[in-house]
UniProtKB/TrEMBL annotation:
GO terms for cellular component: membrane. This is Amino acid transporter. Keywords: Membrane, Transmembrane, Transmembrane helix. The lineage of its organism: Eukaryota, Fungi, Dikarya, Ascomycota, Pezizomycotina. GO terms for molecular function: L-amino acid transmembrane transporter activity. Its main location: membrane. The keyword Nucleus does not apply. Residues 49-224, 261-423 form the Amino acid transporter transmembrane domain. It is a multi-pass membrane protein. The chain crosses the membrane at residues 76-100, 120-139, 159-176, 188-209, 229-249, 256-275, 295-315, 336-359, 365-388, 400-421. PANTHER family: AMINO ACID TRANSPORTER, AMINO ACID TRANSPORTER (EUROFUNG). It comes from the Eukaryota. Belongs to the amino acid/polyamine transporter 2 family. Pfam families: Aa_trans (PF01490).
């Protein structure tokens, strides 16, 4: 006797339509999904993002915090090592994209990094990877909230306490992130991408026309561009961690997207750093003087708000699905559905607000997220995924290609651990230094962070 499989677990289930014309009733399509179950008319459909919407969401998640941090990275490492490391991590990210795509094809029931963790390491892996994924996006959202507070300070000439501006940014993110599906948010992604691109290129062009860093006490600063930097271990690791965060959200994405955004990173980062040198601001929008800074932040504010919204939405949904997965409340508009959704959104933004307020230095927070959370979600799991699929078949017939693949994956895993441990240590040291140095920023500070 064939065992009955629930429709929401059946991988063969497809969208279908039932008609009962004689009774005057036609039911709408019902979609069966391994995660979301049966999606009926009136339910929330989480899988209806168009290809254009997907393109907008991918572009927006890539062009934001990363491009605003790149000139500072070049200042620390020097232009030549900075570009080499950027291209190296970009190449490694391209391989990660390929691994994620292949793994998904081999295991179609895998929907997230937590499912990968369960396949690789059982229940412990499921919980660990799921927690790391959630924290990664929460901390990234904290960085976005911090960038919005910098924008408010720049536009208002520090008209209010910075802690208040961070709270306002959190409220904005909460309101828009309460939109439940990415399909409905895709128009926000287009708006955000256009705004941030315009703002970045305004600064880049203005710096090039100006030909030097902003005046300091009415004097043009001496040019101090470094082809090769001489950073300490802590400085180098924080810079590399920032690059890791920049590329962490690239998987899975078409190969042309990382390549195109890498070109933007290099052009923007090199031009701004070449003219500003060590006087470059972080975020980079403040690198061309007060007037251009206000204009660029005026254009960037909608884009930064969209970044905060998207970065909040992803952990919201992860927590929401984790609580209601396997129940009718996951897609049906019940009271439980809305209580859990809004409760998840509020809880996540509250943690992101605490993170942004506790680590109020933009560059320090970005490097901490890159080291502690982005790297271990990108490097180590992907190496393990290749080994999971290829170890047993390859071991029976050890070819040169298989041996090289094993060696590469081991290198990726070890490199990931090195970057995670070294980068996290360096970021913590940098944050501690920021707390204690004269004029440094402290937790929940009212001080102006626009400098």
């Amino acid at each position: 006797m064939k065992k009955q499989i629930p429709s929401y677990l059946d991988p063969e289930a497809i969208t279908h339509t039932q008609s009962q014309v004689g009774e005057g009733f036609i039911s709408k399509p019902i979609q069966d999904d391994a995660v979301f179950g049966e999606i009926r008319e009136g339910d929330t459909n989480y899988r209806d993002v168009s290809w254009m919407g997907t393109t907008a969401l991918m572009i927006k998640t890539q062009i934001g915090l990363g491009v605003l941090s790149m000139p500072k990275v070049f200042d620390i490492l020097g232009i030549v090592p900075g570009i080499i490391i950027l291209l190296t991590i970009a190449g490694m990210t391209t391989w990660l994209n390929w691994i994620v795509g292949k793994f998904k094809l081999h295991h179609p029931n895998v929907y997230g990094i937590d499912d990968v963790g369960k396949m690789l390491f059982g229940r412990v892996g499921f919980e660990l990877f799921g927690a790391a994924y959630t924290l990664y996006w929460i901390f990234s959202d904290g960085s976005a909230l911090l960038s919005i507070s910098i924008s408010f300070n720049a536009l208002s000439d520090h008209a209010a306490c910075t802690a208040v501006f961070v709270a306002v940014a959190a409220i904005i993110a909460f309101i828009f992130s309460s939109i439940q599906t990415l399909a409905r948010m895709s128009w926000l992604a287009w708006l955000g991408a256009v705004c941030i691109i315009i703002a970045v290129f305004i600064v880049t062009v203005a710096v090039g026309i100006q030909g030097h860093a902003p005046l300091t006490a009415g004097v043009i600063p001496e040019p101090d561009v470094k082809l090769f930097g001489s950073p300490t271990f802590v400085e180098a690791m924080t810079a590399v961690s920032t690059i890791c965060l920049t590329y962490a959200a690239f998987y899975p994405s078409p190969d042309y997207l990382p390549n195109s955004v890498t070109a933007i990173y290099i052009v923007v980062g090199t031009v701004i750093y070449y003219y500003c040198g060590s006087h470059v601001a972080s975020p980079a929008l403040g690198s061309a003087g007060i007037l251009i800074k206000r204009i660029s932040y005026g254009f960037a504010l909608p884009g930064l708000s969209v970044s905060a919204t998207l970065l909040l939405h992803l952990p919201d949904k992860h927590v929401f699905i984790r609580i209601l997965r396997g129940t009718k409340h996951l897609t049906a508009p019940t009271r439980t559905h809305w209580i859990v959704w809004l409760g998840s959104t509020f809880s996540v933004i509250s943690v992101a607000y605490i993170v942004a307020s506790s680590i109020p230095v933009f560059s320090d927070l970005v490097s901490l997220v890159g080291a502690l959370l982005a790297t271990p979600l990108c490097f180590q799991p992907m190496g393990c995924m290749w080994l999971y699929d290829n170890w047993e078949p390859g071991k029976r017939q050890k070819s040169l290609k298989w041996c090289l693949g094993v060696g590469w994956c081991i290198f990726m895993i070890l490199a990931g651990f090195f970057l995670t441990i070294g980068g996290t240590y360096s970021s913590i040291v940098s944050i501690t230094t920021s707390y204690h140095k004269s004029g440094g920023s402290s937790a929940w500070s009212c001080a102006n962070n626009d400098h």
